[in-house]
Amino acid sequence: MAGKRVLVTRALHQAGKLSEGLRALGAKPVEVPVLEIRTPTSFAPLDAALRRLDTCDWLVLTSANSVRALVTRAAVLGIALPQPGSIKVAAVGEGTAEATREAGLRVSFVPAKYVAESLVEGLAGGVAGQRILLARAAVARDVIPDALREAGAVVDVVDAYRNVMPEAAPELLLRAIAEGFDAATFTSSSSVTHLEGAARTAGIAWPFGGVAAVSIGPITSATLRDLGWEPAVEASTSDLPGLIAAFVRYVQQ
Fold first, then answer.
1. Do both 199 and 227 map to the same domain?
2. pLDDT confidence of residue 83
3. Nearest to 103 by CA among 85, 86, 87, 82
4. SS (H, E, C) the chain
5. Residue where a domain stops, chosen among 162, 196, 229
6. Contact 32, 172 (CB under 8 A)
7. Domain count, the chain
């Protein structure tokens, strides 16, 4: 791993853990944040969802950003969390589960894999007839809500936050490309679409020649394939330690 240069695409305030993990292996992280977390265009849907939280059977959280957005907005509205005793929380990924617990919410279920099927199969007692609130980023893939609805659940999807591309991303990417890197890490579908957008804006050919794409999980891998980049390796567990382990696995092949 020594000397390997690895592109880190996470938001600036979240890049630290991944970069530190790579440095511990002797790799050199190249940080090009292509995500910036912002509030939703309108708080009205999120506010309405929080006010009817006690009517839901499940709250599904798909990222630590979702957790923070939900908790912050609930505080603004004066809505007490943790949630009413009747609602259960499913956290997709160990990182999301950790953030959920830190926010004082009890996690009832963490799917074994970051795939819709794992979430649907694992929800206790099945989901048919259950009302589920899914809090996530705006413009996220519909794989999870579609699968839950197909299983008979009533799903309300609410935008808890937005992922936007920082203005500096194309210029930072140009510099990174000039210096070169061996692999690019992707922690979400948004990190894929935003990096592709930054490359297009900067006039950089996509996918990057001679660069291995390291994916955090199946949904991110599907987005990479949709945009013409076959992942070199996919994490076995959809969290940062799993992503780092996948990079190690790739290097040691």
1. yes
2. 63
3. 82
4. CCCCEEEECCCHHHHHHHHHHHHHCCCEEEECCCCEEECCCCCHHHHHHHHCHHHCCEEEECCHHHHHHHHHHHHHHCCCCCCCCCCEEEECCHHHHHHHHHCCCCCCECCCCCCHHHHHHHCCCCCCCCEEEEEEECCCCCHHHHHHHHCCCEEEEEEEEEEECCCCHHHHHHHHHHHCCCEEEECCHHHHHHHHHHHHHHCCCCCCCCCEEEECCHHHHHHHHHCCCCCCEECCCCCHHHHHHHHHHHHHC
5. 162
6. yes
7. 2
**CB–CB of 11/35 below 8 Å?**
yes
Q: How many residues belong to the chain?
A: 253
Q: What is the pTM of this model?
A: 0.81
Q: Is 210 exposed, middle or buried (0-12, 13-18, 19+ CB in 10 A)?
A: exposed
Strand partners, 8: 31, 185
- CA 226/CA 2 separation, integer angstroms: 32
Angle (nearest 5°) at CA 72 between 70 and 76: 115
At 246, the pLDDT band (50, 70, 90 cuts) reads very high
Summarize the confidence of residues 12-34 as an average pLDDT: 88
Residues 138, 190 within the same domain: no
Q: What is the mean pLDDT of residues 236-243?
A: 87
Query: What pLDDT, on a 0 to 100 scale, did the predictor assign at position 142?
Result: 75
* Residue 184 contacts residue 212 (beta carbons within 8 Å): yes
